[in-house]
Design a protein that fits this description.
alpha/beta; 10 helices; 8 strands
Length: 402
Amino acid sequence: MLIPNHFALCVSIFVAIVAASSFYDNPEQDPLPAGGDSQEELLRKWDFEWGFSGISTFAHLKHVKCLTTPSVPFDIGIIGAPFDTAVSYRPGARFGPRAIRAASARQTAFRGFNARRGLNPYTSPFTILDCGDIPITPFDNALALTQMTSAFSTLGARTPALSHATNPHPKLLTLGGDHSIALPALRALNKIYNSPMAVVHFDAHLDTWHPAKYPSAWESPQSDFNHGSMFWIASNEGLILNGSSAHAGLRTRLSGDSFADFDDDERQGFLRISADDIDDMGTAGIVAAILERVGTTVPVYLSLDIDVLDPGLCPGTGTPEPGGWTSREVIKILRGLEPLNVVGADIVEVAPAYDGTGEQTAVVAAQVGFEILTSWVGRGMKEMQRVEPEEGVVNGGVRDEL
């Protein structure tokens, strides 16, 4: 009979100890200061987001509606172009910006150091903002083209936050949207830089097709504006540097019974690198070919259609083509292209309705965005170290040094 009594006593003592100092008890809080916490203390306590928390912006960047807030300067703006009514096959890329932002959630300032480049783009001296989306009409493609051109021109012509001789204009990374958004971007850049652009184009398809290559008895000028002819239009408008541009990752079928599509492409001055070429050239060879073709001084528009990747890896796109590159290969090539003078870029044709449950296409697109931002910041910092800052060039005196 002593054993049960002894056991009961031990239980009573244990319960008393736990009740007195439970792990789950609320710790005693320090009394609040009479005026409440300072702003610094509030930020220390609450200005933090885990990858899975917070409102969805690209990499948890600050969201500013840049189009309506010209008073807030930036050096790099992430801008969404949710437009997909110029596609020839599967629609759905209007949801691309939202999907890419959600897939970038694990990119944060506290864990954004890019080991291959030795920098964290999100803690650099450059101001990077998520500028929201352009409110593009889904009903009228001609109006949509006007809206996008106006938006890109408005944002790209502003004075950057870190104004410097080597950083004359803010850069825009556009999240598409179908690939036709490259035309208004090139029109805007032509006005801002007063120069045609070299185009480095990652894609399974040429996108230099004459609009008539989409056969129809019902022709209209508006139908010329589509996601396979925007570079043809841009080339005819003098927006593309003939002889200084390159395609990478091609594996498209051609029109009709001949190589006429290639003839059209060559007249527009593009170097063609096929998806198969990577087997012989390797990623280093592809990087070298693009750098030799484009150079490192002319202004470049970098346009990446997510269908450059194999649909087995990235199925969430509108015009999938088997035999594409892996994400590792594309990222390796992009990293090698940092010497290019890229003044604008896009990631297009992400259509999340066709993606897998793991959002793998959007995740790859978000990583591509991270690599582009890293290269922009890396090249920008290197250029600014080469050139002595001019006195008084910094906008508003907010920053005066790296």
